[in-house]
Amino acid sequence: MPLALDSALDALTAQLKIRPLPEPLLREALTHASFLNETETPGRSNERLEFLGDAVLGLIVADELFRLFPDIGEGELTRIRAELVQRRALARVAERIGLGEHLVMGRGEEAAGGRRRERNLAGALEALIGAVYVGHGYRAARALVRRLLGPEFRRVKTAGVEMDPKSRLQHLVQAAWHQPPEYVTLGREMTPDGQLFVVEVRIAGQPYGRGTGPSKREAQRAAARDALRILEASGG
Which of 32, 147, 159, 229 lies at 20 to 30 Å from 170 by C-alpha? Predict the structure, then answer.
């Protein structure tokens, strides 16, 4: 590993308060598959560590939420966990710590904006968590996740459990229009990060909001949030 890269990684581990990891393990965590495909360099991409880190992250977040909210049910806990570990949320955390600058990737992927791509950033963050778990164990991985997601844990603890936007909209629309909102899938959009569903929510046959998401469920929630914003702005 070049000296400059060594120094950058030392700065990253110091910033995240991670004890030094074995160099091959850290290299693997930060290596995108495009680099190996393009250069035919021996070694592994971060995909295996991403797989492991995803599971470790899910367990740690579930554990934190279980302790934060002793009185809420499995359904709400599952919803909050999904919100905290979704790709977009993890990519924002990765951007905040400058993780994209440390990724090793092929020139083609980099030229296509790979250092800012949500999928790459979220995957690298999960791989880093996986590497810490492999190198130092569960307690070290938990400490890292707490530091990375600390603002989000504090937010949900302070705000409490908010009703899902679809449930909120359902209550409002049922009370005012005496019928449920209707969610219509308009189609799909292709983005650099993959396919997005486009959903429109209609109230009494009229369009009130639109949203996109990697799944129909996420797109429906985004559309519900958009409709709530419009209704609240109009005093509805």
Answer: 159
